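Example S7 (structure tokens).
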């Protein structure tokens, strides 16, 4: 039977789909290999949210086909450019759109070249590729309709899974070694609204919390306008919920947020931060900011910089606005030059880097629980792990330079040093 490798591009939501695709092929008797060079067939699960992501996806496909591999193109690129991919890259044997992955093996073996996206369901799988952390997608699509965003056209509107289905997936993944369940969606706070659930996310977390093997539940991608006091209370009082939330605000200027079409505007942003910061338990906040969107003048940027300078955010990502064909924002004219936007991005990140360094320095001498993920990627002489306030891939890590543990272990670590984004410690 053929050997298959998978290249997953983009966000953790894409990774869930990638793992599901892997599971389909493994169930059909294919052998999964880690290195694409050893594979006969490579599935490239793409992202096309931004033009830069489109280019990365195309470059990856060309790299694989250039190596003589059969390639299946999956993901958002299929929603956006499947005709171009099939016409211009004949080595791509199949374009499989989102929502079709349950049929991908049959389509490949039957010689089909295109599976049209189907936005009516959400994947459920029992295979995960991490050591002890597994993302679980509770819903698909988004109905917020931000003016700069292509997600509704690439992934459709909100489609939520039933709580029972999600909890059963969590139970299966926990039984296979997942100690951390990371709940993901385009807007996690909207979970259940399309199927008539009230406080759906809060109740779902309660149900997942009773699974004995689950030690951490992490909440990712909550729109500020979707945040509720009930959810903050869950993070505040539930010992299994990480004291952490990913709350992408994009901006704080009401003028810019209105131009973006962000639900709730600046009022929702400030209300969300006030709720979190008033909690009795310290909750770490990650957010993402966009600079250079139409409407961002010098005053709006100064407002954003002032917001960051107050140390309001613990983890931060900043990206420059990209006018994407098909979005309403792309038709707007009043936006800063790209060099100005890049300078603003560097300015914000430089400020955050300094604030993060100071905050982490204060943790020296503290003891924290760390989920050990294995050897440090740069050397086998060190271990690497994460604290409950660090999400995988996007936040910093805890570098362990003394003591031993296996990947997947929970270890008590005394912090002995810090850097801009990482902590250093020893197992005690």
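Recovered sequence:
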């Amino acid at each position: 039977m053929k050997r298959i490798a998978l290249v997953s591009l983009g966000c953790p939501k894409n990774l869930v789909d990638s793992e599901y695709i892997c599971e389909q092929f493994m169930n059909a008797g294919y052998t999964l290999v880690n290195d694409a060079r050893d594979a006969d067939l490579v599935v490239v699960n793409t992202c096309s949210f931004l033009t830069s992501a489109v280019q990365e996806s195309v470059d990856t496909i060309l790299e694989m086909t250039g190596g003589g591999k059969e390639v299946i193109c999956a993901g958002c690129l299929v929603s956006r450019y499947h005709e171009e991919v099939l016409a211009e890259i004949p080595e791509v044997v199949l374009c499989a759109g989102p929502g079709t992955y349950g049929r991908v093996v049959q389509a490949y073996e039957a010689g089909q070249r295109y599976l049209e996206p189907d936005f009516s369901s959400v994947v459920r799988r029992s295979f995960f590729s991490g050591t002890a952390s597994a993302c679980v997608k509770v819903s698909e699509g988004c109905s917020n309709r931000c003016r700069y965003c292509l997600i509704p056209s690439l992934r459709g509107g909100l489609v939520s899974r039933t709580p029972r289905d999600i909890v059963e997936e969590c139970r299966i993944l926990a039984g296979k070694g997942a100690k951390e369940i990371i709940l993901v969606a385009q807007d996690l706070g909207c979970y259940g609204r399309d199927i008539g659930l009230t406080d759906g996310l809060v109740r779902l977390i309660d149900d997942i919390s009773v699974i004995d093997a689950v030690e951490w539940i992490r909440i990712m991608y909550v729109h500020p306008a979707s945040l509720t006091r009930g959810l903050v209370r869950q993070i505040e009082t539930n010992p299994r919920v990480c004291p952490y939330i990913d709350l992408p605000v994009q901006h704080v200027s009401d003028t810019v947020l209105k131009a973006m079409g962000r639900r709730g505007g600046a009022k929702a942003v400030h209300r969300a931060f006030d709720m979190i910061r008033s909690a009795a338990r310290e909750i770490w906040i990650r957010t993402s900011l966009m600079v250079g969107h139409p409407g961002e003048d010098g005053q709006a940027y100064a407002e954003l910089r002032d917001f960051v300078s107050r140390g309001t955010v613990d983890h931060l990502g900043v990206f420059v606005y990209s006018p994407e064909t098909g979005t309403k924002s792309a038709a707007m004219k009043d936006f800063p030059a790209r060099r100005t936007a890049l300078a603003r991005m560097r300015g914000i990140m430089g400020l955050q880097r300094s604030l993060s360094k100071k905050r982490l320095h204060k943790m020296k001498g503290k003891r924290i629980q760390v989920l050990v993920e294995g050897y440090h990627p740069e050397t086998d002489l060190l271990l690497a792990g994460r604290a409950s306030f660090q999400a995988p891939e996007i936040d910093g890590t805890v570098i362990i330079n003394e003591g031993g543990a296996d990947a997947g272990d929970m270890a008590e670590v005394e912090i002995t040093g810090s850097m801009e984004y990482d902590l250093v410690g020893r197992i005690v």
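Notes on this example. The CA atoms of residues 210 and 240 lie 9 Å apart.
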